[in-house]
User: Fold these one by one.
Assistant:
Number 1:
Amino acid sequence: MVNGKSMVKFILNNKTIESDLPAGTTVLDFVRYHENLKGTKIGCREGDCGACTILVGEINDDSVKYRSMTSCLMPLANANGKHIVTVEGINRPNNELTEVQRVMVDESGTQCGFCTVGFVMSLTGFFLDETEKSCEMAISSIDGNICRCTGYKSIERAAKRVSGRWSAVSGQKNSENNLDVAIKKGIVPNYFSEIKEKLVQLKQETNRPLTTDHRPLFVGGGTDLYVQRPEELIYASAENLFDDADLRFIEETNEFIELGASVTVTDLLVSPVMQKLFPNLYKHLKLVSSTPIRNMATLAGNFVNASPIGDMTVWFLALNASIVFNNNREIPLSELYLGYKTLAKSENEFIKMIRFRKDVQHFNFEKVCKRTFLDIASVNTAISLRVSSPTVKEEFPNHDKARAHAWATDTVIVDAHVSAGGVAPIPLYLKKTSEFLRGKEISDETIFEANEIIQSEISPISDVRGSAEYKRLLLRQLFIGHFVELFDFKPRN
Ligand SMILES: Cc1cc2nc3c(=O)[nH]c(=O)nc-3n(C[C@H](O)[C@H](O)[C@H](O)COP(=O)(O)OP(=O)(O)OC[C@H]3O[C@@H](n4cnc5c(N)ncnc54)[C@H](O)[C@@H]3O)c2cc1C
Ligand code: FES
Ligand code: FES
């Protein structure tokens, strides 16, 4: 996929496509202007509205796994060897409606209709993806779609109704045969059953993403790059890392969890390894962007974009993670950031792997935005603590706050890593605060003294996300919130 001019081959709905268009062309422009499939709408072109949502299927563990994505931010290169599904690819003959489309109509979930295709694609994706088939997850699947006229209640009712019918047929648990059930129930057409074979064939014909002889621009999911430099990206000399199989793994060794650089936020969410280590994984990660963006957003993309409020960066800083480059140079993630968007990395280096110690004991992530979902943080923070007594608050089943408090004050912090975003030009590993916490009891004194150190480590500025004073106060509250959340600790003042 270099310099625009190399062959991209994929299945679009029920048709095999071979294109020598610039590989940086967005899938949205390709389907609308080159294939004349106008069902996919153009709204914001920034991943925010969901009007352009498509489904992307690829072979994974011997079956075709589908995820929703925003086609406005997806380069054609990232379609290579995959099944791309637009609304035309799920439509039934003779103007019959699919079950998802029918329920949207029945529940008055559509008015002008501009957003409707996006909602239908996201909800259809829900039936094919790896999430639990519960009502909550059905509603969560449309978290990246915006409607300006209907009001969301009718759309939520549609999501509830269609997921309720599914549960009645095949139970709530995500099952291996989602695709079979979806075909049987008319959620997707019969030709989907032949896609696996076609993709296997295609895989033999399509090579892994190529490298470039020019100064490379590394592209992951494109969710930052295509918002920042959409025109330039079309013709850019790019190295597409998203589909590099060597960068898409989550593995557990004796000491570490190792993750490929192109692991997406959704890959984390559905990973049994991560679920085991982080009981609040869903609660934390649903605060990050939206379903289609999480399906595209890679960890390395978040780190290298170097936003001071990057959620995954703050998350992994608190895990004291390190990053490994393609030349095997390994540095702590915290040492990647030299100044605002200035990185300790040469132009030719790309991140290959992320690694953190797996003896995570108590981890928490907090994020405050102007609105709860699909928004970037005003301030975010994460903490990882190891304490002398591994007993956790579940020991106090009746929320016996006094006992929990007594336990916590008897407990010494053995190891601590704290991070914060939105309070400096870079995402911050709070080194002095982390050092201070080690060896201390969990107490009012410790927490309030630690906050004094935090305040000396940060340098927030006033901007659209809040005044500098507000961000200082917010981080203080969120830091205390970590102890409330992890230990039911109730500070006295
Ligand atoms: C609607 C919307 C909502 C969002 N919400 C959030 C949010 O809530 N929280 C949040 O943190 N972010 C959010 N983002 C930002 C974005 O989704 C994340 O930063 C994402 O992780 C970027 O990953 P990517 O693979 O898409 O990066 P890309 O856009 O592909 O790349 C970003 C940068 O990383 C570089 N890069 C990519 N891979 C590598 C690699 N392996 N080695 C070296 N460099 C590499 C690229 O060259 C580029 O400089 C949002 C974006 C959108 C569009
Ligand atoms: S056009 Fe709005 S998300 Fe793509
Ligand atoms: S029905 Fe008009 S924007 Fe949703």
Number 2:
Amino acid sequence: MQRYLCLLIVSLLFLSASGAWVAGRKVRVITTNTTLADFVKQVGGDRVTVESLAKGTQDLHYIEPRPSLVTKLRDADMLVINGLAFDIWIYPLIDSARNSKVVTGSVGFVDASMGVKPTEVPPGKVSMAQGEVHPLGNPHYLLDPVRAKQAVKNILDGLVRVSPADAATFRANYDKYIAALDRKIQEWQKLMSPHKGKPVVTYHRSWNYFLERWGLDYFGTIEPKPAIPPSSGHVTRLMQDMKARGVEVILKEPYFPNKFPQLIAQETGAKLLVLPEWVGGKEGLDSYIQLMDYLVKQVADALS
Ligand SMILES: [Zn+2]
């Protein structure tokens, strides 16, 4: 009897050490960005642990693939990526982690952009080698709360696949969160509605979905093309056009250079807003709803 008990304990220990499923254990989720991590938290509740590989203050286009990130992936049950080539740095990390649970196509792999129709898809075949950072179209869809709901749905489907025993909990959390987001979207629409049609200039093409959602007019970018630094000719033309149109607001994330945006703001009299793109990009913005509350209010105030 004692021998059998010993065997049982040893095999249980072996099971948990090998990472096999243990009843009651939380699903370990890794995301590439902090906004997706918040969505995982909302849907997964206390049945998950979640960590983002990029910080909310970082530019998701350029994350250094450090060994510590590989270690985090190695232990994950599920991986959620932004998709649309925003976080392509994840693929070499997936290869290095050798964790079959999170490789592309496995049940634990979630591309949050599935079902999101991108805008600005370049015609023909585009190579990242040509410096194109938006080769599959504009990947900044999480700044549109309506498109972001598709990401929440993709996360729900992923969690249900990985831990079917928790499906009812996940679905209830999802329904509650989507209802809360829908209420907020109405609030945000109302705040932005007096500003419909007003022109806004941005540094990078990160705010196009955001502006389009509230009926604002995306007027132009300080970068002539994504990730291509502005020339003085481009900036001069842009300033002339902005003055002619009466553009009042410029949007920029903290990690983009200040020089040209500041110069343009001074020359044209437009207000320069430095805004976070991600959850945690600024102190106190610890959830997507807090982030969007802040962004909508900042932009609406600047346009008032
Ligand atoms: Zn971009």
